[in-house]
Amino acid sequence: MSLITPEFGLIFWTVLIFGAVFFLLAKFGFPVITEMVEKRSDHIEESLRTAEEVKNQLAGISKERELMLEEVGRQKESILSEASRTKDEILRQAREQAAQESARMIEKARLEIAADKESAMRELEAQIALISMEIAGKIVSEDLKGNAAQCSLAERLAEQCPSRISKTES
């Protein structure tokens, strides 16, 4: 027996044991291992398909988001322009109302001034009439004997009249 070359018995038993182990592995081990590898392969393929679908969905969602952002931008512009038009219309109406109100107030003030002027003129005429009646009453009651007495009476009455007129005007 040599150390380098094995004997026939050793080779026989080694081949026999190897065949038996191979047969057992082929009958019971390899199908289980193959099945597990196929399941794992199927799972990986399914995961890849799912990842691809998710990627496509994300791309679609991204496009939808962009479209929605564009739509929101258009709506924002529309709302802003409508608000601007509404603001301009409100300001225009407010200006018109202010102009109408100021015109009414001016007309009312003119009417009040005219009424006050008319009232003042009536009052002045009444005062003049009273003063004239007082003067006439004093003239009648006095005995006028000459031009000098008439002038003196007229001067006294004239001095009294302006003070009454200035009191009624103020």
The helix content is: over 70%
Count of extended strands: 0
User: In percent terms, what proportion of residues is strand?
Assistant: under 5%
| Residue runs with pLDDT of under 50 for 5 or more positions | none
H/E element string?
A: HH
Structural class estimated from helices and strands:
mainly alpha
Rg over alpha carbons: 63 Å
Mean pLDDT: 86
Sheet bearing the most strands, described? none
Shape: rod-shaped
Number of helices: 2
**Separation of termini?**
160 Å
Describe the structure.
The protein is mostly helical and about 170 residues long. It contains two helices and no strands. The protein starts with 7 loop residues before the first helix and ends with a helix.
Keywords:
170 residues, mainly alpha, 92% helix
Structure summary:
The protein is mainly alpha-helical and 170 residues long.
Give the SSE layout:
Layout lengths: L7 H134 L5 H23 L1
